What does this fold into?
Amino acid sequence: MPSAQVQPATAPEVRELTFAQAVREALAEEMRRDPRVFIIGEDVAEAGHPFKVLTGLVEEFGRDRVIDTPISEAGFTGIAVGAAMTGMRPVVDIMFGDFITLAMDQIVNQAAKVHYMSGGKLRVPMVVRTTLGATRRSAAQHSQSLHAWLCHVPGLKVALPSTPYDAKGLLKAAIRDDNPVIVFEDKMTYQLKGPVPADDYVIPLGVADVKRAGRDVTIVATSSMVHVALAAAELLAGEGIEAEVVDPRTTVPLDVETLVASARKTGRVIVVDEGYEKYGVTGELAAVIAEGAFYDLDAPVRRLGAMHVPVPFSPVLEDLTVPTAERVAAVARELCGTR
Amino acid sequence: MTRATEISPRDELADVRPEQWRALYRQMLTIRRFEEQVNELYTSARMPGLAHLYIGEEAVAVGVCAALRRDDYITSTHRGHGHCLAKGASVDRMFAELLGKAAGYCRGKGGSMHIADPEVGNLGANAIVGGSAGIAAGAALSARMRGTDQVAVCFFGEGALGQGLLYEAMNMASLWRLPVVYVCENNLYNEYTPASETTAGSMTARPEAFGIPCTEVDGQDVRAVLRAARAAVARARAGEGPSFLLCHTYRYRGHHVGDVNRAYRTREEEQWWMTERDPLTLLARWMTAHGIADAALLAQLDAKVREEIARGLAFALDAPYPDASEVDQHVYA
Ligand SMILES: Cc1ncc(C[n+]2csc(CCOP(=O)(O)OP(=O)(O)O)c2C)c(N)n1
It folds into this structure.
């Protein structure tokens, strides 16, 4: 698990939590710490969110701080922007990442612009939590990974946690940040377990994490693709190829330095992200790595993202659209074959 | 729906003193002279970008903002100069913002359509039609959560009635009894298209469908606007929820400063509003009839306002542009 995990003198209590429990714990702790923090969205109160991420929060904090809304993504996101501008710190829940399209004006034209347009006078300390990720057989309107859209807009920060540890630490940092931060959680990782310290910690936005060290090839992977990359690294290890897996953790801000350092070390890079490959996050990651490490690279940076098709329903077809460990390993072998 | 009825001037707003009526007149005059100057700046190519003039609609902004406290909120529109001035902005920094100068309210980064001044509760003009409906409701929600009795006013044109966000926000504001006052400025045109061609059914039936009381107001009569706004603000402050004011008004000028042909409406129509329904003339006439002002005083006010405008403009023209290093500041807080 995360190598950035600090080891204080007296070891803190570390439990195994699911990703969903880690998110819930982050929210509960931040709501206890700061009365300005509140949750707003559809089915967030008694229902506890379709993925049960928020179970128990309304019981502790009440309906005034865990606010159930009508089905109005633009409306409640806009309400959060106004609340953030006037002294609150809302956490907006957009049930599925696909529905962020409905709130796009409020995020892109309002939240992202207010600080700049006001010459720095107004702030929007708001978090939008939503999902990404296919392979739940949910078909084209419930399976997209649209985070690249938001990375494209100055004024927004974008976090892509891959582990329970990162999910908690990044969400706490996002809530404490004075900017609009969009946190994408992969639906497929909610039940994933991992060690999470019980004490208060935050993971600063903009610090990548080397999830596995290696010397032969770097796999830069985001969100659940980190697990795909780690599985690929296992496959490769059996063949004598040591892959380094680097997780940027946030795409905005992006820890270019860590990415470039790993690329210089291994000389070969694959970038893996579940957004559409064309014009997507992989393009940007590949470009910054190429710019920063061109003369140390032994081969062009390779990209793997989702196929440029609406996500199909049929399991047989759906599985073809997202990068898999086998495909990542195959590209790694090709790259290392150029040795 | 209630219709603001004529009541005798003696009882009317008995606690509004003569100097307050004169102050309202002066505010309306300031907006008018400010914008005449903006038009002049634009036509003489000294002002960059666009400006959407509010001339003709002054009574709405002034009447509504007179019902507010300094710490109450407003959200405004692309046609926002009047709202900003009425909520407490000063002409010098307004001009500076319009000219893109560092001394402007937003350091020249917002311009005509994005003036914000949180010190007086102005959460910003907004270039997205209907775009601030969520923000206003959010400010109202926040006021309640923070335990204050602040009220948020959401100004918008009747064109925003076509935007879904407004209805999402009104639904929640009514469900949660948020302290919002919706002020719809029906100036008859959405840009170059008559409202009759864009808005089906009844305008007032919309808020009423959400259980929000709607009052139709003569938007050219600042006294009527003030009376209706006070009632709506009092209701919001008392925790009774949102209200909707449908203010009938008219913009004398084009959609923006460059819209000079205005083929979508007749000169006769414009003339009628300007001569029969001018908010400044109506208030001046009423004040004169009730001994609150006379011709000499009105002339004196006009001279003072012109002087303030001239001083503000000189300040803004002399003010420096932002330093180039500012271009990537304030992207993130
Ligand atoms: C979402 C959106 N669509 C289109 C426009 C372009 N536009 C600017 S003002 C305007 C008309 C607005 O009419 P109304 O709301 O009645 O306000 P008025 O200009 O009459 O004050 C339009 C279509 C815009 N700014 N925002």
In short: Chain B touches chain A at residues 73, 75, 104-110, 114, 116-118, 123-124, 126, 128, 131-143, 145-146, 152, 164-165, 168-169, 171-172, 175, 329-333 (CB under 8 Å). The radius of gyration of chain B is 19 Å. The beta strands of chain B are 2-3, 73-75, 152-157, 180-186, 189-190, 193-194, 214-218, 243-248.
